[in-house]
Amino acid sequence: MNPNQPKSLRNLTFCALLIAMSIVFSRVLSISTGFLRFNLGSLPVVLAAVLFGPAAGFAVGAIADIIGGVLAGYAINPLITLGAGAIGLFAGIGWCWLPLRRDSLRLACGILLGHTVGSIVLNSLALRLFYGYAWSVLAARIPNALILSVAEFFLMRALLANHSLMAAARGSFTGRRSE
Question: CATH no. for residue 162?
Answer without folding.
Answer: 1.10.1760.20
